[in-house]
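ok trying again, last paste got cut off:
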Amino acid sequence: MVEHTLPPLNALRAFEATARHLSVKNAADELCVTPGAVSQMLKSLELHLGVTLFRRVNRGIFLTDAGQGYLPPIRNAFRQITEATKRLAVTTDTGILTVSVAPFFAAAWLVPRLKDFQDAHPAIDIQVVTGKTLADFERDGVDVAIRHGLGRYPGLCSERVLAVEIVPVAAPDLVKRFGLPASPADLTRWPLVHEIERKGWHFWFQAQGVSDIAAPRGPAFDDSTLLVQAVLAGQGAGLLPAALVASDIAAGRLLRLADIALLEDFAYYLVYPDINRDRPKVTAFRDWILNASGTPDAPLAGH
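nice, full thing came through this time. structure:
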C-alpha cells in the first residue's frame, strides 16, 4: 500500500541526481556517498511510493514512465527550496557584491564614484568584473550587471541608469574621401562601423529626422575600444561616447561629423535576476547608482 507521508528528503535527492545523470555512480559522487547508499535510497523510495522509478538494462539505468512523471515536480520542488533559502538569507546579506560592467562604463563612470558607495556601505565589498556580453548570473556568481543597449533582457529586471552623450566621428582620410557631411542624411551614404547590437546608428538617424535608413551594413564590435580602433583605421564612421573620443578629437586623429547627441532609450541599464531584487546588498547598490546617475555631473559627457 502506498504511504501518504512525504518520502525522506535524502531519498528524493538521490532520485533527482540519479535521474539527471542516469548513473548511480555519478549521483553518488555528487552527493558524496557510496553507490551502494544511493541504490539503497532508491530502493527505499520505490518501496515507499509503491512504484518502480528506474529500469535497469544491462549496465544502464533508465526512467520508467512513472519516474519520468515524478521527476519534473521533484526537480521544481528543489528549485523552489533553493530560491526560498536564498530569499531567507537576505537578512545577513552583506559581504561581497559582484558587479559585471562594460569596460568603458567601469573606467569612465563607475570606478571614480565607488568610494562614495563604500563610504555609505562599509560592510559591502564591491567586486567589479568587466564583460561585454550579459552575465550568466547563476554560473558566474554575478549579483548585478550594467550593460549598454535598449534594456530588453527577457526574464531579468532592467532599470535605466543613464544615457551617454554620443558623437559621430571619422578618421581624417575618410573625411577627405567623402567630404564633411552637410547634413546627417549624408552619412547614410558613408561606410559605417557599429556596436554589436547594430542599433546605435538607427536611433541616431531617427533622432536627426532621417527616415531613409538602409540596413546596418559594415563591421560590428562588442567593445567600444575596438570600435574606436576601427574608426581610427578608416574602416568607417563610428557613433561613439563623446568622453571616449574627446582626446582623439582634440589631437586631430578623429574629426567630429555632427553635434553631440543624447539618445535616451539607448542607455546603460542595471540588470539583475528578480530573485536578487530584495537582497539588501543589491538594493543598496541599486539605490546608490540610480541616485548617483541622477546627479548633475552624472552623464558620461564629452568636452
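cool. The two ends are 80 Å apart (CA to CA). Residues 2 and 49 are 5 Å apart (CA to CA).
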